[in-house]
Write a structure and sequence with these properties.
This protein is of the alpha+beta class and about 150 residues long. About 30% of the residues lie in helices and about 30% in strands.
Length: about 150
């Protein structure tokens, strides 16, 4: 699995959000940088910890000129439940066919409890307003992800 690196052009995309509305990356980038974070599955323990920490850091991230969007292969209805249950204050996007995950290079072989399968890897990309990858976050614990991003932005 080879994912996008710093300096690469991020693929523009339009995906449905948790309210079933289309969201386009290039439209978001007109306002500020975007943290695109890929996570394996809504409402699972690790993904919930990561999402809630980003929720709680939203004001700090916004103050540094960053909008957060989370992408998983979950359907919009499940994303809506996740957002409501955990009072998430940022956009969740549905990539059910994993085309965008493929384009970013984050869909690939995973191993869990002795099983090998294809799935979404937990990697985040800070996309600059020019559409290029400014930073890749690929080495963090779910509970520390938000702090790793904030440390980079400081």
């Amino acid at each position: 699995m080879t994912y996008l690196s710093v300096g690469a052009s991020a693929p523009d995309f339009t995906l449905q959000d948790q309210q079933n509305n289309p969201v386009q990356l290039s439209a978001l980038l007109k306002q500020q940088r975007v943290l695109v974070y890929f996570y394996p599955k809504a409402m699972t323990p690790g993904c919930t910890v990561q999402a809630c920490a980003l929720r709680d850091s939203k004001a700090e991230l916004a103050a540094k000129g960053v909008t957060v969007v989370g992408i998983s292969t979950d359907a919009p209805a499940k994303l809506a439940k996740f957002a409501q249950r955990d009072q998430l204050n940022f956009t969740l996007l549905s990539d059910e066919d994993h085309n965008i995950a493929d384009a970013f290079g984050v869909w690939g072989e995973k191993k869990f409890m002795g099983k090998v399968y294809d799935g979404l890897h937990r990697i985040s990309f800070l996309i600059a307003q020019d559409g290029k990858v400014e930073k890749v976050f690929d080495n963090f614990k779910t509970k520390d992800h938000h702090q790793v991003v904030l440390n980079y932005l400081s």
